[in-house]
């Protein structure tokens, strides 16, 4: 089956579902859930077929409405975009299935329809951003993403959510403004908005108007830096991710931030091209910021007492890893960074979902109150422990493999200092993850006896968590499945 | 902590578990005898036994022995058996314990079955593609010795644990993690390259943590914390060294790499240091030993026995493996003892010998100060590990002529496993009966626990090196090794020999103290009516004692059949091995006189110590490494993070746009330099 | 008078930058949430000005094709089309932010950032 039009189909399914949901003013009941799951499942299936097709044949360009690329919008469907779409839809499906029960406890019934509508729009914009090959199109999808991600935070009507969402919105708006300024400057000198076209003309432009390109790059990097949460610009992340409802935190931390990182990679390497970028030493500065992120994220995480805030800061540190991979600007580094995108998406989602399950059943958020919870909720804490061990870097899990690939890439690029940074940050990770696991399983809870029972969770919450942690384990034991695809895709990226 | 004992004290009929254990024990002795015969006179006698109607058994055994993934099966049997046994434990404790003993026994049988192929030297199995690099198992004679030792040890400890665990909670969890640790250890020693070894090493660290922190008392949690954090740090050091090795040489297999390493400059010293630190944490080498004396007293006794018996040996095994493979040149590449390719090995060995000596001395000195029996045994473990580490050091220092050091350390690994776990079992039984761990408060227990007293004496004689018991052979080998280091190497090792003798004397003194204070003398009032021996625990202890005596009376057997063949697989000078190690006469005049001196010195120190009350010296607080270095380091990191967070987090969050403007101007400024 | 000429030719761009900085300054120095949003709005407006100015060609015809005039230079219509999208985005962000401000006012009783955050300083991350 020719899957040329599949990207559009996927987007259409998500968009139409998002629009139809508020029209169904019925009750939030089983039928509604089934319909949503069917829509998601269909999108997942289509993305899977698309991925297999692209993997077997080759990447292709898809122009909307067959307009010429200079005035039309073009999608580039290559190996890695297809893989990332698949991963995004896979994780998102699991998170949404989880949320079907969980969300009733967090937001009011009237808001549920709006919530799911926002989530589908979020997915729509994420996939659009992954596929797009046009700068302004990317900006539009970025704005939709920004608005919907603020929306799914503020939909919970608590005080802190509103403030956190406002801050995110404001900073996000400033970021988008910077990015648009950067795009404007690029358009000014190259006259194209299509990424490939810009790439073709940029080497000649660079001789004529270097200042424009430099200012544009500066604006774009800072703007994307805010959205992708590099260290000093990560400020909105702890409040936003910790106060949001659990499925939103999982989506935001696990997927949304990654898409921005991917966008930065695209802009740096596909639009501007690595010759210019390396000549102005941008990758080096990126690695310095990444190293700071890795250490400071963990340092701040050690001082946290709320479990979701701790996970949010841990995300900051992990995003530092990804930026280190991208900042090395070599093929190995890029593949390692992309591998970590996928493995962190899996791990962080399992962590957030299991933390959410604990909050769902017991209402406890403070890590000092989690004594003995492993006996009350062994499945959730088992998932948490597995993902946390992956973060620390225990072999057999995908976190270890991404650290391994990243370290080899660092040595290959000739910067052994970062090796130390990676390992120190792993040790710092263990300082704040291990006490949680230890107190969950090895401390006697003050309220009840330590007899193991199965969690009191609905099946729709337990199964996605377990599937995510099994995925962590599988990608840890057999990383080749993903690494082969990434290694095949990277040379086309770096061009 | 409730101390209810689930077993009634005096049973008229032995229960299912006891019957099972006795049967398995007898079969076990038979299998060991078979192994001894097989290694002595070859397999000639087997077809006769298995002819006729029992040829099916013969075929089955050959089928299993030729089974390619046999190492995988050996590793996964305990790993998978653990959860199954824990699940069974919910229904019946006896059933679970029986299953544990039997599965350990079956694993041991499978290990024995590997023997024919190990002798041929071709037992290797790889699973490509797992974890990107591929898992590989390779069992050569050295790995085989380690796996047989761990199999033996695990078998006896599981028999022992059944009775001891009556006083502990969460028994299912204990057996689960014990089995997983067993699988981890087998995987580590049977690994064919560094990657697989690291995988199982980490599994082993995390599962043994659960054993250490089992009690969940405050001291257990603190001990567990120091264990796991040091374990994780050690693992990260090994990982860093592995990455460096892979990036610079492109391989992680255990092949002689000294030629490639030679051109690397100072990186290779960084690598060796990281490896030694990483494995040294596990081995209890000074100054990384601090977790050991905290972990052993708080762990349940079977866990302490395993920890001291085999887990810390894995650390020494790691260092040994590395110095034998990666830092050793290929046989074809060297010209002899003075070939410059031995440089790395030499420097590595020099450092390790001195660290081993320091470990020995400090271990014994601190052991003499202890009154808690388990803590004393823990410090003795550190001290004996010092012996082994010193042997490993000599093996790499002397390079081509290092056969003696190699033999000594491997022999001592086996011996120490046996007598140290036996000692822990003795202490455990005493604790079970008297609930007292302070040796100064006990006394005269030989009346009530005669068998225990006898095996304790056997073990004590073993650890101090009495001729006729197993420690003698390994200690004399190590003694020869250190003398050789002096002869062929640096003259400073003359003092090393003095330290060696002094430490042996100290060991003698310490065990005179232990045996005398606990078993001899007058029995305090409250222990006059304790219950006597416990059947199954005595069975386990007796088995270990038999092995100690057997090895002690025929020390050459282990040498000929296992240690020398394994030494030949590495780059050691064959002529040297033939001259000094083959058919070595352990019971020669010089050694025996030397032992007499050591014992006399030990008794003298004991007499002096008791008179002058030298055994209760409280050291200066600042000498305690833990208090002066480790704890401040750890606390420093954590409190710095927390302080930093508290002060700056809110400020940073409130100044968001300011940061943005700064970064924007900064980025533009930096970039515009290129315009 | 080369300098003034350059200045006048590029006055759109310079004006856009000045507006950007004014907007940024507003966001930086005011603690009132409403003023901050207006600051962001000003920044967005500056971008629109910048973008539209890109398309302008001096002396060119408005971009409505007139066959009678033949082949002449038209002003680039593309930026204007894109900016329409941009304006929509800016409006929606502003609308959302304003509704958030209303809710924040309901919840906290004030829309001044100092008042909202001051009681939180004592708690930090507890």
List the helices and strands and how they pair.
The complex is a heterotrimer of chains A (495), B (675) and C (126).
Chain A lengths: L5 H15 L9 H27 L3 E4 L10 E4 L1 H24 L9 H20 L3 H20 L4 H32 L4 H14 L1 H19 L7 H8 L2 H27 L1 H6 L2 H21 L4 H21 L3 H32 L10 H4 L1 H15 L5 H16 L3 H26 L16 H19 L2 H15 L1
Antiparallel strand pairs in A: 1-2
Chain B lengths: L15 H26 L3 H5 L5 H11 L4 H20 L3 H21 L1 H6 L3 E4 L7 E4 L2 H24 L6 H19 L4 H19 L5 H32 L8 H4 L5 H17 L7 H8 L2 H25 L17 H26 L4 H25 L5 H32 L15 H15 L5 H19 L4 H27 L15 H19 L1 H14 L5 H8 L7 H24 L12 H30 L1 H17 L3
Helix pairs in contact in B: 1-5, 1-21, 4-5, 4-8, 5-7, 7-8, 7-14, 7-17, 7-21, 8-9, 8-14, 9-10, 9-14, 10-12, 10-13, 12-14, 13-14, 13-16, 14-16, 14-17, 15-16, 15-20, 16-17, 16-19, 17-18, 17-19, 17-21, 17-22, 18-20, 18-21, 19-20, 19-21, 20-24, 21-22
Chain C lengths: L1 H8 L1 H19 L3 H23 L22 H31 L4 H11 L3
Helix pairs in contact in C: 2-3, 3-4
Structural class of the secondary structure composition of chain B? Answer: mainly alpha
Q: Poorly predicted ranges of chain A (pLDDT <50, ≥5 residues)? A: none
Q: How many structural domains of chain B?
A: 2
Beta-strand content of chain A: under 5%
Order of helices and strands of chain B: HHHHHHEEHHHHHHHHHHHHHHHHHHHH
Number of helices of chain A: 20
List the strand order in the largest sheet of chain A.
1-2
The 3D shape of chain A can be described as: globular
Q: Hey, roughly how much beta strand do the residues of chain B contain?
A: under 5%
Distance between the amino and carboxyl termini of chain B: 74 Å
Mean pLDDT of chain B: 81
Overall pLDDT of chain A? 87
What is the alpha-carbon Rg of chain B in Å? 26 Å
Give the assembly state of these chains: heterotrimer
Largest sheet of chain A: 2 strands, antiparallel
């Amino acid at each position: 089956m020719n899957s040329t039009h599949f990207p559009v189909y996927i987007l259409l399914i998500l968009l139409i579902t998002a629009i139809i949901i508020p029209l169904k003013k019925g009750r939030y009941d089983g039928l509604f859930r089934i319909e949503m799951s069917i829509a998601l499942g269909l999108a997942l299936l289509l993305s899977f077929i698309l991925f297999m097709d692209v993997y077997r044949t080759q990447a292709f360009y898809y122009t909307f409405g067959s307009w010429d690329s200079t005035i039309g919008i073009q999608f580039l469907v290559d190996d890695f975009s297809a893989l990332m779409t698949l991963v995004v839809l896979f994780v998102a499906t699991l998170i949404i299935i989880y949320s079907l029960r969980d969300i009733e406890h967090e937001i009011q019934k009237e808001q549920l329809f709006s919530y799911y509508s926002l989530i589908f729009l979020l997915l729509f914009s994420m996939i659009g951003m992954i596929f797009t090959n046009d700068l302004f199109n990317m900006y539009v999808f970025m704005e939709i993403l920004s608005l919907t991600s603020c929306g799914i935070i503020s939909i919970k009507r608590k005080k802190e959510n509103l403030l956190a969402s406002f801050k995110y919105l404001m900073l996000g708006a400033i970021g988008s403004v910077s990015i648009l300024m950067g795009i404007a400057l690029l358009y000014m000198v190259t006259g194209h908005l299509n990424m490939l076209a810009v790439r073709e003309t940029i080497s000649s432009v660079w001789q004529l108007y270097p200042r424009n390109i430099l200012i544009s790059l500066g604006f774009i990097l800072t703007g994307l830096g805010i959205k992708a949460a590099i260290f000093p610009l990560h400020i909105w992340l702890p409040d936003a991710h910790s106060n949001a409802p659990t499925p939103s935190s999982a989506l935001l931390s696990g997927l949304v931030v990654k898409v921005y990182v991917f966008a930065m990679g695209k802009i740096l390497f596909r639009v501007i091209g690595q010759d210019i970028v390396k000549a102005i030493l941008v990758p080096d500065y990126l690695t310095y910021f990444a190293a700071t992120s890795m250490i400071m994220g963990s340092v701040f995480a050690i001082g946290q007492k709320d479990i979701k805030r701790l996970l949010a800061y841990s995300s900051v540190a992990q995003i530092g890893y990804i930026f280190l991979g991208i900042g090395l600007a070599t093929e190995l580094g890029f593949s390692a960074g992309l591998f970590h995108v996928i493995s962190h998406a899996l791990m962080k989602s399992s962590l957030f979902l299991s933390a959410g399950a604990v909050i769902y059943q017991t209402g406890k958020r403070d890590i000092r109150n989690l004594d003995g919870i492993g006996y009350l909720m062994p499945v959730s804490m088992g998932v948490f422990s597995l993902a946390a061990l992956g973060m620390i870097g225990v072999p057999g899990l995908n976190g270890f493999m991404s650290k391994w690939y990243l370290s080899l890439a660092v040595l290959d690029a000739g910067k052994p200092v970062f090796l130390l940074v990676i390992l120190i940050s792993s040790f710092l990770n263990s300082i704040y993850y291990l006490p949680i696991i230890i107190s969950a399983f090895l401390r006697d809870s003050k309220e009840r006896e330590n007899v193991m029972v199965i969690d009191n969770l609905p099946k729709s919450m337990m199964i996605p968590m377990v599937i995510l942690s099994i995925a962590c384990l599988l990608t840890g034991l057999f990383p080749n499945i993903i690494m082969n695809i990434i290694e095949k895709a990277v040379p086309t990226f770096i061009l | 902590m409730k101390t209810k004992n689930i077993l009634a004290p005096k049973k008229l009929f032995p229960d299912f578990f006891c019957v099972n254990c006795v049967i398995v024990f007898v079969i076990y002795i038979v299998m060991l005898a078979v192994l001894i015969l097989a290694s002595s006179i070859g397999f000639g006698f087997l077809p006769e036994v298995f002819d006729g109607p029992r040829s099916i058994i013969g075929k089955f055994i050959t089928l299993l022995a030729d089974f390619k993934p046999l190492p995988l099966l050996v590793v996964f049997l305990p790993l998978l058996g653990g959860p199954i046994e824990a699940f069974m434990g919910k229904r019946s404790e006896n059933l679970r314990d029986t299953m544990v003993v039997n599965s350990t026994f079956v694993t041991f049988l499978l290990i024995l079955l590997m023997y024919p192929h190990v002798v041929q030297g071709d037992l290797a199995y790889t699973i490509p593609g797992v974890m990107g690099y591929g898992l590989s198992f390779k069992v050569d004679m050295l790995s085989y010795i380690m796996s047989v030792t761990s199999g033996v040890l695990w078998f006896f400890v599981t028999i022992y644990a059944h009775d001891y665990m009556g006083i502990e909670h969460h028994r299912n969890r204990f057996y689960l993690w014990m089995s997983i640790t067993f699988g981890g250890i087998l995987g580590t020693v049977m690994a064919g390259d560094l990657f697989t070894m690291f995988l199982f090493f980490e599994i082993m660290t995390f599962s043994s943590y659960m054993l250490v922190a089992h009690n969940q008392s405050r001291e257990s949690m603190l001990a567990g914390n120091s264990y796991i954090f040091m374990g994780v740090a050690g693992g990260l050091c090994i990982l860093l060294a592995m990455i460096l090795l892979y990036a610079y040489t492109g391989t992680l297999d255990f092949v002689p790499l000294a030629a490639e390493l030679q051109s690397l400059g100072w990186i290779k010293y960084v690598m060796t240091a990281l490896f030694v630190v990483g494995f040294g944490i596990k081995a209890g080498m000074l100054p990384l030993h601090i977790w050991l004396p905290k972990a052993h007293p708080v762990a349940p006794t079977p866990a302490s026995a395993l920890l001291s018996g085999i887990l810390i040996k894995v650390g020494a095994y790691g260092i040994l493996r590395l110095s034998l493979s990666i830092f050793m040149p290929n046989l074809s590449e060297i010209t002899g003892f003075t070939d410059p390719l031995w440089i790395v090995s030499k420097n590595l060995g020099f450092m390790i010998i001195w660290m081993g000596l320091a470990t020995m001395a400090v271990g014994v000195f601190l052991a003499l100060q202890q009154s808690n029996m388990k803590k004393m045994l823990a410090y003795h473990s550190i001290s004996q590990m010092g012996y082994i580490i010193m042997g490993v050091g000599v093996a790499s220092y002397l390079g081509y002529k290092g056969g003696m050091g190699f033999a000594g350390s491997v022999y001592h690994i086996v011996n120490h496993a046996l007598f140290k776990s036996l000692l822990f079992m003795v202490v455990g039984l005493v604790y079970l009966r008297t609930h007292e761990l302070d040796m100064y408060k006990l006394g005269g227990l030989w009346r009530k626990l005669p068998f225990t007293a006898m095996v304790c004496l056997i073990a004590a004689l073993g650890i101090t090196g009495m001729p006729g018991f197993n420690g003698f052979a390994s200690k004399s080998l190590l003694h020869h090794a250190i003398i050789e280091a002096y002869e062929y190497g640096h003259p400073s090792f003359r003092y090393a020999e003095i330290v060696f003798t002094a430490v042996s004397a100290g060991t003698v003194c310490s065990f005179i103290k232990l045996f005398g204070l606990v078993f001899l003398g007058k029995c305090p009032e409250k222990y006059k009516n304790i219950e006597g021996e416990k059947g199954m625990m005595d069975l386990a202890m007796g088995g270990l004692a038999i092995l100690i005596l057997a090895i002690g009376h025929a020390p050459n057997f282990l040498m000929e059949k296992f240690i020398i063949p394994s030494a030949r697989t590495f780059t050691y000078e064959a002529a040297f091995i033939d001259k000094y190690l083959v058919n070595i006469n352990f019971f020669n005049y010089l050694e025996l006189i030397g032992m007499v001196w050591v014992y006399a010195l030990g008794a003298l120190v004991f007499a002096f110590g008791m008179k002058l009350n030298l055994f209760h010296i409280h050291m200066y607080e600042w000498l305690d490494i833990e208090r002066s270095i480790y704890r401040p380091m750890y606390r420093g990191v954590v409190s710095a993070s927390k302080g930093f967070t508290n002060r700056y987090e809110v400020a940073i969050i409130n100044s968001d746009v300011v940061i943005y403007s700064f970064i924007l101007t900064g980025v533009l400024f930096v970039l515009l330099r290129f315009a | 008078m080369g300098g003034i000429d350059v200045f006048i030719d590029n006055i759109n761009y310079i004006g856009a930058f000045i507006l950007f900085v004014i907007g940024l300054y507003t966001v930086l120095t005011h603690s009132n949430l409403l003023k901050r949003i207006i600051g962001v709005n000003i920044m967005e407006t500056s971008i629109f000005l910048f973008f539209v100015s890109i398309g302008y060609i001096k002396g060119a015809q408005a971009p409505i094709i007139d066959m009678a005039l033949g082949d002449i230079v038209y002003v680039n219509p593309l930026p204007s089309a894109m900016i329409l999208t941009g304006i929509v985005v800016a409006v929606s962000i502003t609308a959302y932010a304003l509704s958030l401000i209303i809710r924040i006012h309901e919840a906290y009783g004030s829309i001044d950032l100092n008042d909202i955050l001051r009681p939180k300083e004592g708690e930090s991350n507890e």
